[in-house]
Amino acid sequence: MANQDFSTQFTVSQTPKQVFDAINNVRGWWSEEIEGGTQKLNDVFTYHYRDVHRCKMRLIEVVPEKKVVWLVLDNYFKFTQDKDEWKGNTIEFEITAKDGQTQVRFTQHGLVPAYECYDVCNNAWTGYVGSSLRDLIMTGKGKPNPKES
To answer: pLDDT, tens digit, for every residue of 80-119?
Structure first.
């Protein structure tokens, strides 16, 4: 059976260093509500979106200009019955330079079609990674969730 983990990728003309720096600027593309460190090995940060989604991540692999991997330590979705979805998943950003371009491959290992949140999460990651992160890399401005007032 083929790997069913959610994955998406895109290519930009910016350098691997610019891509790596943008990925680690999580507040610049995912959410301005991120609390904690997002750049160094073993940094832990939390994300929340209203009362709908909360999660806690640890950076478990950080290879400059090559790879960033987060481990999902805890997660809460208001809209799922299974309260363990995402827990223990890894979220991986792979950076590859090729022919003067830089490819970004995002994979959430464990986010599979059997998950209750799969369709919602697929749509969300496609927007955050494929649009907001890509824009941050290319233009210096992403579209993260704004701070809640």
So the answer is: 999 889 999 999 999 999 999 999 999 999 999 999 999 9
Does a structural domain hold residue 147? Answer: no
The set of residues, in sequence order, having a beta carbon less than 8 Å from that of 51 and lying 6+ positions away, is 78
Confirm whether 4 is domain-assigned: no
pTM for the structure as a whole? 0.95
Residue 33 counted as domain residue: yes
Expressed as residue numbers, the domain containing 106 is: 10-139
Radius of gyration over every alpha carbon of the chain, rounded to an integer in angstroms: 15
Domain CATH for 46: 3.30.530.20
List CB contacts of 21: < 8 A, sequence separation 6 or more: none
What the block records as the tokens of 1 is 């059976």
What does the block give as tokens for 28?
């610049």
Cα separation, 106 vs 129, whole angstroms:
8
Beta strands 6-12 and 53-63 are unpaired
Q: According to the model, what pLDDT value does residue 87 have?
A: 96
Residue 149 lies in a domain: no
- Amino acid 107 reads T
Please report which residue ranges of the chain form alpha helices under DSSP H: 16-24, 26-29, 118-127, 134-139
